[in-house]
Amino acid sequence: MGDREIIDLSSDDESENEKVIPTAVKQEPDLVFDVKQEKSSNKGELANRNGPRIHSVRAAVDDDSDVSYASAICAAPLTRQFWKAGTYDDAPASKKFTLQNVKNYLHVHPMFLHSNATSHKWAFGAIAELLDNAVDEIQNGATFVLVDKTSNPKDGSPALLIQDDGGGMDPEAMRHCMSFGFSDKKSKLAIGQYGNGFKTSSMRLGADVIVFSRHMSNGILTQSIGLLSYTFLVQEKLDRIVVPMVNYGFNSSTGSLEILNGKEHFVTNLSLILRWSPYSSEEELLGQFSDVGSHGTKVIIYNLWLNDDGNLELDFATDPEDIRIAGDVRKIDTIPAWREANEKHIAHRFRFSLRVYMSILYLQIPESFHMFLRGIIVQPHNIADDLKYIEFILYKPQVGGTVEATVVTTVGFLKEAPRVIMHGFNVYHKNRLILPFWQVVNYIDSRGRGVVGILQADFVEPTHNKQDFEKTSLFQKLEVRLKEMTWEYWDVHCRLLGYREKYPVPKAKQGELNRKSYLVDAKAANENAELRKRTMRNASEQGSNNKRKIYEQVDLHNSKKHAKEENVKGVGISQNMQVIPAPAEQVLDQETLTLLDENQKLQTKCLESEMIQEELNLKVTDLRSKIEAAREQQNLLLAQLQLLDVKDE
Predict the structure, then answer these.
(1) Strand pairing partners for 387?
(2) Per-residue burial over 606-620, b = 16 or more CB atoms within 10 Å of its CB, e = otherwise
(3) Is the Cβ–Cβ distance between 470 and 457 less than 8 Å?
(4) Could you report the per-residue pLDDT of 429-457, keeping only the tens digit for each?
(5) Minimal CA–CA distance to 12: which of 102, 124, 143?
(6) Are strands 451-456 and 424-429 parallel, antiparallel or unpaired?
């Protein structure tokens, strides 16, 4: 048998005009290293779906080959605990392959898969990355994403399933997904942008992942299967990342699947997938497409990591309707009577409950798109609905005197305050939650307790793991301003919860702060609406003609509800808003602007009335104190008079 081409998918700098000609590789029994399929398609060969299953392919190679199997780094035995799985020793490795006639060839060592995944300190942050990929597919017609537990049929161990009905990936897109540094997301509104999220997130959750994707383009249907196996790379002691893939095309004239990219490469890649994946036959592999539909992607992560106690990091057993992080339920340090309310609050539960975290992960989701967890729909939850005494605070970050953005921040007390002591800001970027309940202040004397805010900060860039922001000057300014907002809000409203004022605010200053907070002018409201419109633009794109619907959201009903039931002086962003279709370039119409203006006037009157009422209440309290003191004086005088009468007798 002749030499084989050996190309790994981490090689992204190949010359487009020069054919890559690898040297021969000496292969061990039952092991094949070819993983990249030829770019030229051979569509005349059918996949033998009913023939004998392929388990291994042997290649005879001359013993005097000049290819070396030696490597400077050797993989240690794979441990099931993520934070220990990246250990390598310096003993000589056994396998290495070389390529000839390649310019600027760069390969990535398997150790990078693990070190790259360590950017995710939190397992739910890794799951969120995979959910982002599904949400970005809304523009391609996706209507759902589901997250569930499945099983590895080879050993029955639990595995994590994430599936969507988006556009799917053709063979080239699948290769990019499995490689480093590729991103096909050109939209400014797409959440993903670095081309790194799939690798970091999947490797953070488990040692191995297999991807099934079906794509339809110009009437041509393709099915692609790719395997990224850290177990394979480590146990075979490879010195670079290789990813086996197989691709099929549907022949409408014969009604059957055809092998793409050549049968020889198909057979060798298939043998690797069957050896290291949960599936033992090609029939089982193709059976995974049975519930995918005409287009979509299914991701199965198996050999899930264990925690330090030897248990699965993802807990599927505690709640059959949820996925939890095992052992991450922490007790809250508060008085016993308040502990239960705090432990049940969303600000605490999102840290270990995936259902809670998914419910707040996106600021807005189109009604046509649904998220399912363990077979049950996840109801979106707007944190602004949990607040009372809400304010809108306008913030315009500047750099060098230039306004970078206009942000309206919703701030209020949690409805359960002061019993619930949680606090912090929920900062979104392009509709995606980056910092949940970010504690910008550390209260010592209760100042800031119970104050929660929501804002969308598209003017700062998130880190690669989307769990923090780059520490730029803009971000530092944002942090300082949010601290000021917290203290200003607390100082003005703390009496409403029964707290004593730690830093009394002069009445003149108090009125100024209130007006500055409540009175968001029509222009600012319009700018904020435009931000929300841009966020929703891609969500409503469907169909080949790429027509758009842009939804403009105005919270009129909710503002009346809050004003009546909660005595709220401003309104927050709500997912129960009235949805009004608008053309792409249309701003708020005159009627809406008029309503906003009237709303502001009413807020001003309401504020003035409340201030007058507070002054009257203070006078009433003062008069009652004086009356009580007078009564005590009267009683004292009466008692003295009675004593005088007794002496006279």
Answers:
(1) 414
(2) bbeeeeeeeeeeeee
(3) no
(4) 999 999 999 999 987 778 899 999 999 99
(5) 102
(6) parallel
